[in-house]
Amino acid sequence: MLARDVTLYVLARLGLVVVVMGALMLVKVPLLPALAVGVVVALPASLFIFKGLRQRVAVGLGEHQAARKAERDKLRSELRGDEGPLTQA
Question: Which keywords does UniProt give here (predicted)?
Answer without folding.
Answer: Membrane, Transmembrane, Transmembrane helix
